[in-house]
Amino acid sequence: MSERRFSEAPVTDLMTIDEFDAAIRAVGAERYHDKHPFHQLLHGGHLSKGQVQAWALNRYCYQSAVPRKDAALISRVHDRELRREWLHRIHDHDGLGDEPGGIERWLVLTDGLGLDREYVTSMQGALPATRFAVEAYVQFVREQPLVVAVASSLTELFAPKIHKERIAGMLENYDFIDDNVMAYFKRRLNQAPRDADFALDYIKRNAKTRPEQDACVEAVRFKCNVLWVQLDALHHAYVEPGNIPPGAFRPGEAND
């Protein structure tokens, strides 16, 4: 009598492709950070310039980490075609040739908000929770199985909506925001869907067991939590009075 293998989920336990897709999208519907109170304040024009500065400065930590996490993923990939496809993500953020890249466009935003560029790139004024959350994401991509690491990028499925809201809301509600400083978000309207479509197709083809599918859904949930906790920290420090930690950016003070 052959040995029964309890460790393998039965084939019938696999989610269908449509069910798998729906499970991923349900995570965004539940917990993508467009639902966070801080973003509602930001997009609705209810923050001061100093609070918007704090958001842009802290978000730089995340922007600057994206090519590092993509490089960490590429270093693990033996499939040359996957490396070639994923490499453009690094170029999108770091730039290549005459294309300045997303990080430079983000610095145009912080420049336009009146922040010293060297201070921003030093990340000295960033909140501790921001730094911890960002590094947790890089570590996740470095350590998780490849298909799960790829899945963690799928918050890009939900990004175009928040970018559209941000562009419209901030241009309408803040006299210190103009088209030039919103260039980062306008470019991502095209880049994010392209990247998300590729990653979604990849995990649909390569998550071959129910545990792998579940781990991919959990990876999207983890990434949403990474984004959410950054806004929790901003809200606690800059919306609720008296909670800015030592060494962090303080609106209205010299921060260079």
Automatic annotation (TrEMBL):
Domain Thiaminase-2/PQQC: 23-232
Pfam families for this protein: TENA_THI-4
Annotated metabolic or biological route of this protein: Cofactor biosynthesis; pyrroloquinoline quinone biosynthesis
Identification of the protein by name: Pyrroloquinoline-quinone synthase
Alphabetized UniProt keyword annotations: Oxidoreductase, PQQ biosynthesis
Role this protein plays: Ring cyclization and eight-electron oxidation of 3a-(2-amino-2-carboxyethyl)-4,5-dioxo-4,5,6,7,8,9-hexahydroquinoline-7,9-dicarboxylic-acid to PQQ.
NCBIfam families per record: PQQ_syn_pqqC
GO molecular function, one term: pyrroloquinoline-quinone synthase activity
